[in-house]
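Appendix C: a fully annotated inverse folding record. The material below is reproduced so that readers can follow the format used throughout the book. The structure is listed first as tokens, followed by the designed sequence.
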């Protein structure tokens, strides 16, 4: 037995609590101030350029999942409210938006981008409070990327003829867009920006646990003086989303969320002629070869699964390690998760924030339990979790078989399944052995291997020697049960136009 193997064996029997890595890495608290962010006690629906009371008369609470504190109450749109929003969008489409010169459309979208950029700090804090993600993720990731998407697509609005050379394109009409809670503002930006740039009007349904940034975006849209009804925002639960999807006057559906709901939406619109794009779950393979730059790879793996609590559809949730470096990778991974700072998402040093909801925490726990039951070895950070709120420590499993649930099902939490391989062919075969195909990662020093492996992986996005990097110019989307259609880049324009000749 090599020294490393001994270390690993010992690692597996030592109680994590005794190691106490946490203390060595403590930082002084550095909480972001929240006093200049005004959260209203109540938010209405945004329809026809105004904030209006819901016909349903109902409101629901949005909480901070890190504290369970109620932040505000939000209107719940019923079928009649959704109908009013779709009518407003249709009216705006016929009357203003489809008649406006493309360069004028661009000005409005640029205006949204600039105002969002100016209010970046406010939006980052809101995103963190409403959804539980660390402020450094919201501040350095979600918000600047959202702004970048508005800027990028504003630029396309009057250049569509160059996007589809030799073809003429027209907008589709009214787009119904349903988005999830993991990147609330970013998903709104991904969906709104290309739709508006192409000349469509929109009804957007944010997720029930994270409606706040979309509602503050509605305020920006109002201040930017967009013609009334070009963007409408209806808050509510799955029922509200279903009412939007089923509405007969919608021309295009864009959905990001669970595979289960995505499949249901496909069924419900079959035969209606509505255009659609789906971005569903994932079970990405991060493949690490023996010649990979090891420390860089470990950081990439950590970033790929633990930052944002693993609430990322493209999270690198399956790690395939070449057997010759298995021990060192596991050791380094184990040591590194002990140093991740888990806790107050508003603290600027926090790496891993709160789980988005009690339901999501329940789902994570159930799947982790299944891993233990099926005989996989559990390794966890010894960090202390806050008493209130929804939390799960950074976790990984070794001894995982392809058939285990934790190797097949999307956990959507800070939980990594480690598997091994011997040859590149085996890595590809195992990586592709999933119902999903959203993203993947390849770690190796050899450029030729990157090309060889990535051309064989069935995934929409493949990162090499990096992970979870986004840019508005590059398309994103999946294969198989991860959905279809692309968002981002030039490709992201196509779902919002019809090519007429
Ligand atoms: P979900 O798919 O239920 O929710 C996503 C959005 O769809 C929300 O706005 C929700 O209100 C809406 N919705 C729900 N039912 C609907 C229906 N019948 N018709 C139209 N809209 C509907 O996802 P949920 O329950 O929040 O999370 C469950 C699992 O889904 C997660 O554990 C994760 O595995 C996966 N997920 C994947 C995401 C991704 O980015 N691909 C994002 C969120 C969740
Ligand atoms: Mg919330």
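Designed amino acids, in order:
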């Amino acid at each position: 037995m090599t020294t490393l193997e001994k270390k690993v064996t010992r690692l597996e029997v030592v109680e994590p609590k005794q190691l106490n890595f946490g203390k060595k890495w403590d930082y002084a608290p550095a909480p972001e101030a929240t006093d200049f962010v005004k959260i209203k006690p109540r938010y209405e629906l945004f329809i026809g350029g105004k904030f209006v009371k819901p016909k349903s008369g109902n409101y629901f609470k949005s909480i901070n999942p890190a504290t369970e504190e109620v932040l505000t109450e939000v209107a719940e749109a019923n079928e009649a409210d959704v109908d009013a929003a779709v009518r407003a969008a249709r009216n705006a489409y016929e009357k203003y938006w489809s008649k406006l010169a493309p360069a004028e459309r661009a000005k409005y979208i640029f205006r949204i981008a600039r105002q969002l950029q100016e209010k970046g700090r406010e939006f980052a804090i809101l995103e963190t409070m409403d959804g539980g993600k660390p402020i450094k993720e919201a501040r350095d990731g979600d918000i600047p990327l959202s702004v970048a998407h508005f800027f990028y697509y504003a630029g396309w609005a009057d250049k569509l003829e160059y996007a589809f050379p030799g073809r003429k394109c027209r907008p589709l009409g009214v787009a119904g867009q349903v988005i999830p809670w993991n990147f609330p503002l970013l998903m709104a930006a991904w969906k709104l920006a290309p739709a508006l740039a192409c000349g469509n009007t929109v009804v957007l349904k944010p997720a029930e646990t994270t409606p706040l940034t979309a509602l503050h975006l509605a305020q920006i849209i109002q201040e930017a003086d967009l013609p009334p009804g070009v963007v409408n925002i209806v808050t509510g639960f799955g029922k509200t989303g279903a009412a939007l999807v089923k509405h007969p006057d919608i021309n295009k559906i864009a959905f990001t969320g669970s595979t289960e709901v995505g499949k249901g939406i496909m069924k419900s619109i079959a035969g209606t002629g509505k255009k659609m794009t789906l971005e569903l779950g994932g079970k990405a393979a991060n493949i690490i070869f023996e010649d990979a730059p090891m420390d860089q790879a470990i950081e990439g793996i950590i970033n790929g699964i633990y930052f944002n609590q693993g609430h990322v559809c493209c999270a690198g949730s399956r790690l395939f390690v070449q057997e010759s470096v298995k021990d060192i990778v596991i050791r380094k991974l184990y040591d590194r998760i002990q140093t991740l700072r888990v806790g107050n998402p508003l603290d600027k040093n926090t790496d891993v924030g709160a789980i988005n909801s009690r339901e999501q925490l329940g789902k994570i726990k159930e799947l982790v339990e299944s891993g233990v039951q099926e005989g996989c070895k559990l390794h966890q950070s010894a960090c202390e979790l806050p008493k209130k709120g929804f939390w799960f420590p950074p976790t990984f499993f070794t001894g995982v078989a392809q058939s285990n649930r934790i190797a097949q099902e999307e956990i959507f939490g800070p939980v990594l399944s480690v598997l091994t391989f011997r040859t590149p062919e085996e890595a590809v075969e195992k990586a592709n052995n999933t119902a999903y195909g959203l993203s993947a990662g390849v770690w190796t020093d050899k450029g030729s291997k990157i090309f060889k492996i990535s051309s064989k992986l069935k995934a929409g996005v493949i990162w090499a020697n990096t992970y979870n990097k986004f840019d508005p110019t590059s398309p994103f989307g999946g294969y198989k049960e991860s959905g279809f259609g692309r968002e981002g880049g030039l490709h992201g324009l196509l779902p919002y136009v019809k090519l007429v000749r």
